[in-house]
Structure formats: C-alpha cells, structure tokens
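quick one, 299 residues, struct below
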Amino acid sequence: MSRLLLARGSRGALVETVQRGLGFAKDEVDGIYGGGTEAGVSEFQTKNGQNTTGQVDTDSWKAITSLPTPGLFGRALQLTADFEGHGFTLAQGNFDGAGITWGIIGFTLASGEIPEIVSVINSTNPQLIKSAFDDLAPKLLQIIKASPQKQIEFADSISIGPKKVRLAEPWRSSFGVFGSFAEVQRLQMERAQSRYFEPALATASRLRLTTELGVALCFDVHVQNGGVKNAIETSLRGKNFSSERKLRIALANAVADSSRPKYQEDVRSRKLTLATGSGTVHGAKFVTPNWGLDELPAV
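---
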C-alpha cells in the first residue's frame, strides 16, 4: 500500500532527487519542497494518471525517480541533517570546541571523523583532495595526522567571527567542493549509517521502540547527544508506558534534561518533534509525515 514520503516543508537530498526526476533546471534543484515542487509533482501526477495530491507517496516516488523507495535511514537522516543545519558540503569553524564541523550530520575534527574520511579518500582517490583543496591539500593532510591539540589550534586559526562559527576562505569553499563529490557523499552516508544509525537501531530495540518515529528519535539522540545515557535507558526500561508515544515523550524529555543547561530547550524541541510527530525547531515548523516519518512499523 502506498504511503506518504515527501510533502511541502521537507528539505534535503531526497527532495533534490525528486526535483531532478521532474526535470528541474540545475539552478532550480534546491532541495526545498515548496510551492514549485508541489506544483511540479501535481503536474506529473495528472499527466501520468495518478491521484493529484502534490505530495510524493511511494508510487509517485518510483514513477518520478525510477529508484527504489528510500529506506528509513535515508528519511531519518534527511530530517536530522536539517535539524543540524548541515548538508554534504557545509563546513563551520571552531564555535563549540570541536574544531571543524562538516558534512551531512556535522562530522568533526575533534572526534576524528573528518580525518578518517579524508584519509580514506586520500587512499582511494587522492585526486579529489587535490581538486577540492588545491594548494591547501598538503596542509590538510598534515593536519589530519597532527595531535588533537594541534588540530584544534589549526581550526581556531581559520575560524572567524565573534563566535568563530564561520570557517575562513578558501577553506570553507574547499570543504564545500570536497563534500560535493559523489564518492565523498557516499562515504559520509556510510559513516552516518554505521556510526550512528546502526547503534540507534540497537538502542531502539533495547527500549522496545518499534515505529519509524521511535527509531528516528534514537538516531537523532545518537547524532546530537552521543546516544542515550545508561541511567536514562535503565530508568525507562524499568517503567511501563501505555503507548509508545508516551515512551518517546519520556525519552525526549529525559535526554533534554540531561543535556547542558544552555542547550536543554533546543534538545527538547528537537526530540519532542520526533516523539510526537510535529513541532517547532529553530523557529521552523515540522510535520514528520511530510518527511516520511510516521507512527508506522520501522522496516
């Protein structure tokens, strides 16, 4: 049976795939499901004898893109990446002590994730590093092998602005080019799945969260918060909840309450949006079924 995958308000790589499938011009492919995309989907549906809704369900997705239905990982990733304010190409400075933050879910220099990705690409296709970073390539390869202290000092030196959010040029643009390569994007996806989504599946299983929203919530916790703390997991497993929704809400609030005070309400808004299926995050309204995440069994 067909189900909703994408609708107005969703953003990200899956929306870009739909836009390209509809034949949008290159400068029109922006990954934003707005009025233009809705009109394009409606026109396609009408021409192809489908129910004209302006929304992409599984039948429309296959007809428009000729691709398999995106799995739960891809749908959860799209929403969490939007929460994070990141895409494959964005690189930011040392605003939080993590050095450089870059990529689809904000891989960082301090965690070793950026060095790992750069090292893999350097061993499999070094020309991509040369193409993206040009004369900066030797410095980048030197930095990824440096001590954590030297890495942070370097990141601090190329971070600008009062809060050091912005990465100085040409580093910012170079990381952008690097993230635009298909091979680098595939590697980012693999890392996001193995390092964050698969552990999130294990967390969801232990907590007996079986819906798409439950798994997506756990994934977001792993990305933003490093996972569910043992004390929280033990506490929740020791309680009886009349519905999974109530368990999700309890998890959302527990994770927020255990966060650093200045981030608690940001964490809470994100987590409750996934727990309940709608909410406001960073001033933007979200309805999760429009992102392909609903109160349905996770498969």
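The chain has a mean pLDDT of 97.
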